[in-house]
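[User] Once you have settled down, look closely at the record that follows, and write a paragraph about the fold.
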Amino acid sequence: MKPFRFTLQAVLTVRQRQEREALERYAAALMARRKAGEALESAEEELVRGADVLRTRLAAAVPAGDAARHQDHLRELDVRRAQAVEVLRTADRGVASALQAMLEARRQREVVEQCRDKQRQRHQRDQWAAEAKLIDELALRRTALARTLHGTDPRP
């Protein structure tokens, strides 16, 4: 009997590759998001440490110029923290976008796989029908041969 051959195998291969690439992009987006989260955490810790230093120095009655420099430094740290927040938001959007792309790629692959499964089932049914037809034909020939050999052939 004829072996199964999926007519859309090339499409399935492309869909599998697209899904794998989408998964890799999603993993990269998750990694970028994790790094952005770590950068934000670091910026927040640095801001807290800077605020603690300023409080300590103000309690120790440092000159006004030193206090102003420390306040400027704190503003700079706060700007860095705000930038880190924006980078994190951008990374979150990237993760969401990559996730949607990965899910769409998976859905497209699954559609082609369902088509393959239906083709395989149809092929199997056709194979079974061909085998049944062959068996029936062999049985008829055997019966005809037996009738001919034993003289029970009803034909004149």
Summary: Residues 9-108 form one domain.
